[in-house]
Amino acid sequence: MAVRITCRRVYEETSPEDGKRVLVDRIWPRGMRKEDAHLDEWLRDVAPSTELRRWYGHEPEKYDEFRRRYRAELRDAGHREAAGHLRELAAHDRVTLLTATKDVEHSQAAVLAEWLSGRSRR
């Protein structure tokens, strides 16, 4: 049975289909109280580095290069432990990767979902 990995905005309503709810942003979502997030975990160490996040600025035209750089970061020592933990979660349960960004399709959550499922566009 394949484990399902989805991405959603943390501001959306929870769903029984969510499985483990994991926030993958480095910074806490603006205006959200911790008790309203209904998280199982906040893995800020799996998020892109501050330098990469600032360079990207959620500009869709930079997404392919962002994806390449972020996947490289996931192999670095600074991300390896958190990335491994996320892989372990995904191996045993449904996982919903949560982010505050408005454009989930062009976010680190989308890159992580692709990475965890073994799909790669490049």
TrEMBL record:
Protein name, UniProt field: MarR family transcriptional regulator
Species this chain originates from: Streptomyces bungoensis
InterPro entries (alphabetical): YeaO-like
Source superkingdom: Bacteria
Pfam family, one: DUF488-N3i
Record PANTHER family: CYTOPLASMIC PROTEIN, CYTOPLASMIC PROTEIN-RELATED
